[in-house]
Specification:
The chain has helices at about 20-35, 60-70, 85-100, 115-125, 140-160, 165-180, and strands at about 5-10, 40-45, 75-80, 105-110, 130-135. It is an alpha/beta fold and about 180 residues long. The N and C termini lie far apart (about 35 Å).
Length: about 180
Amino acid sequence: MLDQPDTLFVVLGYQCHLTSTVRRYLDAAAEEIMRVDDQRVTVITSGGFTNQRSAPGVSEARLIADYLRVRGVTADVILDETPRTTVENIRGLARIFSARGLAPKRVVIIGDQIRRQKIAMLARYFRLSPVELSSVDLDRSSTQSAVQRVLGYGFDYLAVRISPLERLGLAVIELRMRLT
């Protein structure tokens, strides 16, 4: 059983391959985590097995945790290897808080800049507020940014409220996962 952390960092998954973009994202996460002087820090790494064809048996959560260790992060780590979407990331976080009775003084969710609004909305929806958001700019194109901010945010806003819509979105993701 982990001690009750004072500061809890959540690092959201971002692919199952250590590309230069993912390394930059995780380097920024590691730096932020290691800046905290508090000895009671816990990290939750969140992300499932999203690339079964090109990265069989590799979860985003495990990839993140292993990379953070290599970068010098010594905090306790909780793996959440089930999420495939941002909605599932934040819902899983709420479940972990409840199941483990976590009540940290400070919660920091680290994600890419393009998902910032969506993460904030989902944290409020799943009653995780107040949380701090730490965003890493991953140099997305203006088209990618617009699609994520408008369609991604809008879809997830509706999906958490209308479960058949979320199931449809997950079916599309599962099909894409089988193809990549």
